[in-house]
Amino acid sequence: MSPAAGTIARAAIVLLIFNILSKVTALVREVVIAREFGVTAEMDAYLVAFSIPSVMFFLFTGALATVVVPVYSEYAARGREKEAWGLFGTFFNVLLVVLILTTAAGLLFAPWLVKLLAPGFQESSVNLAVELTRLMFPLLIFSGLAALFGGLLNARNIFAITALNAPLSNMAVIVAVLTLGGFLGVRGMALGVLAGGVAGALVQLPALRRAGFRFSPGVPFNHPDLKKILRLILPITLGLSISQTYILIDRFLASGLAEGSISALNYANRLIQMPVGLFATALGTAVFPSLTRRAAGKDLRGLGEGVRRALRLIILVCVPASVVLLVLREPLVVLFFQRGAFDARAAGMTAAALFFYSFGLVGWAGEFVLARGFFSLQDTRTPVKISAIAVTVNLALSLALIGPLRHSGLALANSAAALTNMTLLVIFLNRRVAGLWNSGMWRFIATVLLAAGLMGAAVRALLPRVDAAVSAGTLMLAVQAGLAAAAGMAVYAAVLALLRVEETRRLWEMLKNIVPISSR
Fold first, then answer.
1. Are 383 and 374 spatial neighbours (Cβ–Cβ below 8 Å)?
2. What is d(CA 262, CA 111) in angstroms, rounded to the nearest whole number?
3. Which pLDDT score is estimated for 520?
4. Cα separation of 385 and 350, whole Å?
5. What is the structure's pLDDT at 517?
6. Mean pLDDT over residues 478-490, rounded?
7. Is the pLDDT of residue 515 over 60?
8. Are residues 132 and 202 in the same domain?
9. Local confidence band at 14 (pLDDT 50, 70, 90 cut-offs)
10. Contact 117/248 with Cβ under 8 angstroms?
11. 328 vs 151, 406, 433, 458, CA distance in Å?
12. Whole domain around residue 223: which residue ranges?
């Protein structure tokens, strides 16, 4: 393994470890929330309220993470890191003003935003959602700053401290629900969300100061590279806002469906995002600095090969994950969520959504890495255009499927749009760089699908035992579901080994890097 590949592998392993911590705490958070609030109108109101600042947070996070790293890498490649810190010191001040003004606007226009997003809500749900929106909107300030801090630290190949952001936020929500949820309801949960956002920003400050960052402006506000950052951020923000339209479309349409439809979609989506966050996000974040360095050095073939290797690993991991979630959807929903206020009706609604979400898992994961291939080339326009096409597909299918399938139709539309997005990203990026797609990719995909099909058959054969364990208690259900999943993975791994898929060796080499990391 080359030094660069070793660096990427070690960074991916560090991020994977922290992402496991993040996803475990996120799963515990969802279990606690489901038990306390279930699939109810109150929970629907909370999700609508949370979606407004969280979508904006996603925009700032995605835009900053994809702009900061390439710009900083360009300065570092020319030996001008001190100037880079001065540039981002000025940018910090600009960003802070924008965040404060945006938050003020959100507080003022909260009633109109809620009615626009959830026109099907009853008046009581509207009032609660407005109150919660105003309570959580200041989260945007701290989350936006945390995104900037994380991008700068990642550009310096400092990943661990930035990865603490999500676990801290999850723990804050868990504590808030357990301590405040009983007498404040979802308002207590909203306070926990705000506290987690503050902690995520503050925890990065010591490492950022040690790296050399200063908060005072280091360049004038008319500096050409500051203008360049703003020019790059605007189209990325537009593109990310288009991609976030998935959430807004779902909540707009689901607000007129049966009570709890928004909540059921949310719980199912949380399970789908587990493998995406555990592996795809870690891999994409770790490989991004390497891609930007190759782009800066005009090594387009190396860039294409880097994206291809990452994409093959994502397909290798996420296809079997989608099979497990699809076949074991009902017992998994019961295992994780069905307790307290989360009853059998809630479990059925969530499992139905999970079935259709499972088909899009590879699309969401692949999109994360492929988009970074474009961003490393400082091409922010192409992903925007492709996202617009995918959203159009999502909206058209949502309108067509919501009648016969209700909230499950929205999940299926999301999956189809995600796969469309990934396919178009591959096609257009393959035109820009050499080495991304070749005939070997078709053979690889066919092999993975064959192995996943045999895996699904193995898991399906054990499903009666898993279903029988539902009434035997949580422990027995967990054991039987785990054994079924493990048997399926054993079949999957055996087929891949028999067919000598090279990524199995690469995954093993990445896992071996855990030892030197943990012993330092």
1. yes
2. 19
3. 34
4. 32
5. 36
6. 94
7. no
8. yes
9. low
10. yes
11. 37, 22, 39, 12
12. 3-437
Of the candidates 137, 163, 146, the residue with the CA atom closest to the CA atom of residue 51: 137
| Residue at a domain's end among 407, 437, 467 | 437
d(CA 11, CA 41): 42
**Residues counted in the chain:** 520
Do 375 and 405 lie in one domain? The reply is: yes
- Report CA-CA distances (Å) from 174 to 29, 36, 179, 185, 506: 5, 11, 9, 13, 36
Quick: pLDDT tens for 323-377. 999 999 999 999 999 999 999 999 999 999 999 999 999 999 999 889 888 888 8
Contact 152, 208 (CB under 8 A): yes
482 in the same domain as 405: no
Contact by Cβ (8 Å): 450, 315: no
Q: Which two tokens stand for residue 51?
A: 């979606």
Q: 509 in helix, strand or coil?
A: helix
- End-to-end, the C-alpha distance of the chain in Å comes to 20
Whether 11 has a pLDDT exceeding 70, the answer reads no
Q: What is the DSSP letter of 109?
A: S
CA 371/CA 385 separation, integer angstroms: 12
Buried b vs exposed e over 132-160: b needs ≥16 C-beta within 10 Å? Answer: bbbbbbbbbbbbbbbbbbbbbbbbbebbe
The long-range contacts involving 183-186, CB below 8 angstroms and separated by at least 24 positions, are 185/37, 185/42, 186/37, 186/42, 186/43, 186/45, 186/46, 186/128, 186/132
- The answer to whether residues 409 and 261 belong to one domain is yes
Domain boundary among 437, 469, 504: 437
| Judgement on whether residues 304 and 333 belong to the same structural domain of the protein | yes
Distance of CA 517 to the CA centre of its chain: 25
Note whether 371 and 485 are same-domain residues.
no
Q: How far is CA 208 from the centre of its chain?
A: 24
Average pLDDT, the chain: 86
CB 138 within 8 A of CB 157: no
> Looking at the structure, do residues 494 and 383 belong to the same domain, yes or no?
no
- How many structural domains comprise the chain? 2
What is the spatial distance between Cα 114 and Cα 135, in angstroms, rounded to a whole number?
A: 13
Which residue carries 């076949």 as its tokens?
327
pLDDT bracket for residue 8 (50, 70, 90): low
What DSSP line would sit under 45-70, residue for residue?
A: HHHHHHHHHHHHHHHHHHHHHHHHHH
Per-residue model confidence as pLDDT tens digits over 228-266: 787 777 777 776 677 677 888 899 999 999 999 999 999
Kindly state whether residues 182 and 235 are assigned to the same domain. yes
